[in-house]
């Protein structure tokens, strides 16, 4: 699997402050991924990388893209470019192949017009749905696929769905397509992928032992709004990890030029910066909030909203506990980590239920309680995460 990063800010930031410098930057994650446990390749995401970012509008609305099959840690040009390039909206991706060969055509992000897309995960039963997915596409989207990844085919399906919804993906509207349009098209894209996997004949599923569970951590932007998903087509399993952080400044702890200890500062109730990442860029737990499994995250004008994806895999029970076995098997690990010790699953479940009951008594909604029940080693960190989640969920959209 892969790792990705999204930055959206009211001001430009040097790419190096996200990609190169932080303690656990995405470059560091290319060879030391802490939340991707893959017995095939250890902690490496070494099958290429890509950086996409938006420049001044006078240069056009399409993003600038730099991809390479060289491992990110070994690319001198990446360090040269990142230290001299700034942007308000940045996508970064380091790749560990699941589908498609090692080539620049298969490196994320993928772009069309003003749109940019990347993916961490995989489409379930891919070889059994690829032909039928292609048959859903108009010729221009079918022929526009240059590589061999399921991720790029999913992007083609998104573009096709956007067009069918009455919006020209090539139009590059000055204010973007709008967060509502992108969010609804993303949900329709996921629904179509689920329909394709559901239609695989039972005989094939049984004879070839096909796993139809899809891990769909997608990110898409039109240069104005950003939509991210943390999703798995299962009601019993956790999705691959995804976090976000927001604040007013992304700065080092000291003014020393050698300081790599970045942190997200919040000087007031507003937010000028939003980061979304497969893995946190720092080890400051209180800076990062888990995105709940099977949720869609929207960023518009630095306002963050998280909504559940309401389909047959949605689980509304706040006591429901998902298994992390599948994402660990796929070389990923869930956000939901239990503290060290000898607690059994039953005892952890009991703690969660007790916590949920106390939160209900405090007046929090069941959905917010479910989002907040993430066991961690520090009670203070857990409460901080809950308060951050509550603040963002309660913030009214500024559309």
Automatic annotation (TrEMBL):
Domain of life, per lineage: Eukaryota
GO CC list: cytoplasm; glutathione hydrolase complex
BP GO annotations: glutathione catabolic process
Signal peptide: none
Coiled-coil ranges (or none): none
Pfam families in the cross-refs: GATase_4
Annotated region (Disordered), positions in chain: 375-399
GO molecular function (one): omega peptidase activity
Keyword annotations: Glutamine amidotransferase
Skewed-composition ranges (Polar residues): 375-389
Every Glutamine amidotransferase type-2 domain range: 2-279
Protein name (database record): Glutamine amidotransferase type-2 domain-containing protein
């Amino acid at each position: 699997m892969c790792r990705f990063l999204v930055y959206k800010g009211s001001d430009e930031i040097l790419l190096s402050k996200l990609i190169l410098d932080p303690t656990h930057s995405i470059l560091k994650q290319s060879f030391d991924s802490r939340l991707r446990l893959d017995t095939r390749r250890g902690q490496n995401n070494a099958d290429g990388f890509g950086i996409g970012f938006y420049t001044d509008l006078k240069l056009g609305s399409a993003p600038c893209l730099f991809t390479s099959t060289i491992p990110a840690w070994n690319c001198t040009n990446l360090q040269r470019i990142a230290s001299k390039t700034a942007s308000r909206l940045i996508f970064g991706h380091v790749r560990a192949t699941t589908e498609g060969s090692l080539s620049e055509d298969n490196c994320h992000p993928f772009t069309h017009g003003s749109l940019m897309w990347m993916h961490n995960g995989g489409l379930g039963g891919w070889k059994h749905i690829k032909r039928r997915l292609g048959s859903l596409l108009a010729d221009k989207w079918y022929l526009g696929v240059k590589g061999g990844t399921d991720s790029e085919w999913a992007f083609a399906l998104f573009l096709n769905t956007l067009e069918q919804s009455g919006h020209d993906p090539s139009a590059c509207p000055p204010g973007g397509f709008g967060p509502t349009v992108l969010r609804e098209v993303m949900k329709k894209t996921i629904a179509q992928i689920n329909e394709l996997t559901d239609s695989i004949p039972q005989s094939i599923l049984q004879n070839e032992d096909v796993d139809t569970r899809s891990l769909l951590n997608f990110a898409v932007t039109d240069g104005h709004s950003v939509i991210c998903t943390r999703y798995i087509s299962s009601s019993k399993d956790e999705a691959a990890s995804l976090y976000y952080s927001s604040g007013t400044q992304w700065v080092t702890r000291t003014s020393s030029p050698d300081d790599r200890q970045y942190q997200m500062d919040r000087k007031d109730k507003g937010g000028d910066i939003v980061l979304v990442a497969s893995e946190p860029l720092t080890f400051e737990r209180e800076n990062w909030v888990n995105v709940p499994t099977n949720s869609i995250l929207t960023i518009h004008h630095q306002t963050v909203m998280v909504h559940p994806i309401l389909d047959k895999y949605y689980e509304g029970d706040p006591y429901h506990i998902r298994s992390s076995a599948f994402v660990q098997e796929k070389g990923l690990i869930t956000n939901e980590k239990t503290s060290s010790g000898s607690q059994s699953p039953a005892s952890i479940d009991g703690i969660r239920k007790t916590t949920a009951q106390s939160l209900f008594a405090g007046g929090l909604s069941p959905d917010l309680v479910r989002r907040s029940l993430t066991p961690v080693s520090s009670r203070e960190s857990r409460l901080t995460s809950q308060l951050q989640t509550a603040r963002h969920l309660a913030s009214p959209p500024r559309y």
